[in-house]
């Protein structure tokens, strides 16, 4: 996903100019230096520099070098911009969402500044404070640990009191009145679970993230489908995990997961990233997919089609979701008094090779 790393460099350059107190006309870092710092190709660096030059953050002079532009001071680069806060944006579905947001806001002539939280509430606090200090005109935020109590309610109260329009994407805090643009996560999990029942599976298990509200909603859809098919005991085959533990899940809980799979013919994974790890786990432990166990994911990420066993999943709207979030924010900026409802995208089932039909 190197094509999208330029967004990280753009945000880094703005922060670097601010923290180093660089002034208009000061010589800036070379392409080679930026490649070394960020460990990316020269093409990615040039993509970032093109955007920075377009926004007058830097100025490139042929045969001379790169210099700080006219609008590179912290106030002018942030003031009047739209703040976009995402848990991640360097991989998975996040680059597509950010690109959709950027497209709409660029077309509307709105500069943006981007921050990531790595799904940490403390980093969300820092991002919100920085953007409020910079005088942003609006905010598009993906919540961090959205299913847990949040310490930033005071900051969101400040945002509301200041009349700064706010839109959430992917999820929202249940206590917030701000609108949200997301995929219908309940319907997403219900869709893939219904498909498993349609294929003849009756012994299902599921793995869901516990600290993000999407995990709760996807469990809701899983449970609804099980109940509709008379399988209320499905809640006994559940595995809940914290988002930051996903990388070590299949190492630390190997025995428990093997036991769960041994009692099932199919497993519903919280998202494609987890489903791909499940495929690797099954391969390492001599479990055939879909021969011994069928696996489904959610989000239709780029991983879903290129993994060892292409995944059956549901399609996430990706860039369209980002565009809708930006459009909703612009609408709220035009008329702050208008009551805006949440926007939910209906998921679309994508059938690939990871599910075995046992009723054929």
Order of helices and strands: HHHEEHEHEHEHEEHEHEHHEHEHEHEE
CATH homologous superfamily placement of the domain at 185-316? Response regulator
Amount of beta strand: 15-25%
Share of residues in helices: 40-55%
The low-pLDDT segments are 72-79
Radius of gyration: 22 Å
What characterizes the major β-sheet?
6 strands, parallel
Beta-strand segment tally: 14
Instruction: Kindly name the structural category.
Output: alpha/beta
**N-end to C-end Cα span:** 39 Å
Overall geometry comes to globular
Mean pLDDT: 90
Arrangement of strands in the largest sheet: 4-3-5-6-7-13
Q: What is the CATH domain class of the domain at 185-316?
A: Alpha Beta
Treating each run of at least 4 consecutive H or I residues as one helix, how many helices? 14
The CATH architecture of the domain at 185-316 can be given as 3-Layer(aba) Sandwich
What is the name of the CATH topology of the domain at 185-316? Rossmann fold
């Amino acid at each position: 996903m190197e094509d999208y790393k330029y967004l990280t460099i753009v945000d880094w350059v703005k922060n670097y100019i601010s923290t180093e107190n660089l002034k208009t006309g000061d010589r800036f870092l070379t392409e080679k230096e930026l490649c070394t710092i960020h460990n990316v190709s020269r093409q990615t660096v040039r993509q970032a520099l093109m955007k920075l030059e377009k926004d007058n953050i830097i100025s490139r002079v042929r045969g001379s070098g790169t210099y700080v532009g006219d609008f590179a001071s912290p106030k002018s680069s942030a003031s009047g911009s739209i703040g976009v806060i995402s848990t991640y944006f360097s991989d998975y579905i996040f680059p597509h969402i950010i690109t959709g947001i950027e497209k709409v806001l660029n077309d509307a002539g709105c500069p943006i500044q981007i921050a990531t939280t790595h799904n940490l509430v403390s980093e969300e606090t820092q991002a919100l404070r920085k953007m409020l200090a910079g005088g942003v005109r609006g905010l598009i935020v993906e919540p961090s640990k959205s299913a847990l109590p949040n310490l930033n309610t005071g900051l969101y109260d400040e945002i509301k009191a200041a009349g700064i329009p706010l839109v959430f994407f992917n999820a929202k805090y249940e206590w917030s009145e701000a609108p949200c643009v997301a995929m219908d996560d309940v319907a997403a999990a219900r869709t893939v679970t219904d498909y498993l029942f349609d294929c003849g599976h009756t012994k299902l298990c599921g793995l869901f993230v516990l600290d993000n509200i999407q995990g709760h909603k996807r469990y809701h859809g899983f449970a609804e489908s099980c109940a509709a098919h008379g399988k209320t005991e499905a809640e006994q085959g559940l595995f809940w995990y914290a988002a930051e533990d996903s990388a070590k899940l299949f190492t630390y809980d190997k025995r428990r997961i093997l036991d769960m799979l041994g009692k099932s013919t199919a497993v519903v994974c919280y998202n494609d990233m987890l489903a791909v790890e499940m495929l690797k786990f099954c391969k390492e432990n001599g479990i055939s997919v879909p021969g011994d166990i069928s696996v489904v994911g959610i989000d239709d990420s780029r991983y879903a089609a290129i993994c060892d066993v292409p995944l059956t999943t549901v399609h996430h709207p990706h860039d369209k979701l980002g565009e809708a979030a930006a459009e909703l924010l612009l609408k709220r900026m035009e008329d702050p008094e208008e009551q805006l409802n949440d926007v939910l995208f209906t998921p679309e089932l994508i059938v690939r090779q990871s599910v075995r039909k046992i009723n054929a």
